[in-house]
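not sure who needs this but someone in the group chat was asking about CoA-transferase from Pseudomonas flexibilis so here u go. i didnt clean anything up, its just raw.
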Amino acid sequence: MGALSGIRVLDLSRVLAGPWCGQILADLGAEVIKVERPRVGDDTRGWGPPYMKTPEGENSAEASYYQSANRNKLSVSINIATPEGQELVRALAATSDVLIENYKAGSLAKYGLDYESLSKLNPRLVYCSITGFGQTGPRAEEPGYDFIIQGMGGLMSITGEKDGVPGAGPQKVGVAVADVMTGLYSTIAIQAALLAREKTGRGQHCDMALLDVQVAALGNQSQNYLSTGRSPGRQGNAHVNIVPYQVFTAKDMDFIIACGNDTQFVALCDAIGLPELPLDLRFTKNADRVRNRDVIVGILSEHFLTDTADNWVSKIHAVKVPVGVINDIGRALAEPQVLARDMLVNIPHAQNPDFRMVGSPVKLSDTPVEYKRPAPMLGEHTDEVLSTRLGLSAEALELLKDKGVIEQLK
């Protein structure tokens, strides 16, 4: 029994933020019914290559992007632009605990699938809307995309090499972090609303916006601005508040040192053969090192060029100062620690029994995450869900198929 066993989620979202939220809830044991457009489905079904491979090594029609955010779900293909399709979604919402959607603000009202309409039908429904800019404000009705949000929300202004360094300029993060973080925050909001429902008997509307999340996630950087009135700049791989906390280049490759306090700095200097550095008043305290960043980083950078990264990492690791190499994704997934934590899981798929993906980081002692099914094929569970959850007969299902209202995987 999963932690959220008995909770039914109707997932009307697509692409990443909403599906990411739905996948987390599904991993935790909720029944997640994903509603997709007939013949097309979630936009990310077409976001390839790459595609999942068949056992013969050929490309399937299942995009890797879609696979990453939709495991443990049931796929029901319904055309919500039709009156019959809208009625099916309303019927499913009437028996659901949670609904997730990421349509533009106000656009579901014309279908009678907005929060106000569905909460009258099911007062206990927790309805989570995920948009770029939220349900209010001057940009509420605009679509929002992760790349734009990373720029507007300040993240790109502090990401990338600082001015004057080759390759300088604002950079987006290599993963759609605004989407992923919004999925995480939405999961928190939904679970909070479910707990509140236990006290009040009522569901509520969760209004989640990518821009809100991105601004909230600026953390210490936004507080640095509020404290000084100066916007932090780009520091490349360096830390704005801590020194040394960055990438260094050894004789053969780059590696990372994350020296978090003055005690660690003393240990670091002893380990690398520069015990005199902490005695220099310019470098004794972290605040001193921040003020004299260029000087101390210059000394360390020149010193690290005298040996290999593996040797430096070995010496620094021995004195318990955080240090490590920079893995590509292949090497990261092969890390012994990653494998020991069961972060790679096999979930047999109809088109590839050896299908693997990255698992959930949530480790619960009594209600562990279960991997019941891979990301579904488009409309794979239409008949099953509509017959068992809504009681539709085989004849009724065939009539809806003939009208183009629903679609079942053949």
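also The mean pLDDT is 96. if thats useful
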